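Reopening this ticket.

The earlier resolution said the output was attached, but the attachment link was broken on my side. Pasting everything inline this time so it's all in one place.
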Amino acid sequence: MTPMIRPAKESDVPAIVAVDIAAGRADVGNTRGLAASMKAAVADAACLLLVAEMPPGTTADGAHAVVAWAKTHWWDFADGAAPAGHYLAGITVLPAFRRRGLASELTEARLQWIWERADDAWYVVNARNQASLALHRKWGFREVGRGPGFHTVTFDGGEGVLLSAARPLRGRRVT
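Inline output:
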């Protein structure tokens, strides 16, 4: 069964936090900041927070189950080479649901949302994350700069890459 992608609600925040914990991206004892960040994203009209959810009856307990999330972020100021604009922010997929195209679907949905609002989408990533760099090439992301950090994002053990992708021509879908 394929998960449904939809905008997150505040009631999804505990499930989003649980996805990050299960994926090893959050510490069980220190999730307050993550939960607050996700609640803020839900409430912020300049951001998009999506969840991928399995339909009722397809999980062990028969309930809806969030299996992935992804968001955008709006920076209203430039930071060195990183301009103000809409950025792809975080994305997490439960390990059991990886390699099924969910990250691509979530990214496509976020990009369509950004391109309804802006000519360019922005993205920052650790230079060592070759999988992410390769994934984003299919949407036309090109390197704009490198540095130790952009806005509030810093990079463990290395350098970050700032990338940009222009909105495709009207009527042409990027895949």
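Reporter confirms the inline version is readable. The radius of gyration is 16 Å. The first helix runs from residue 13 to 22.
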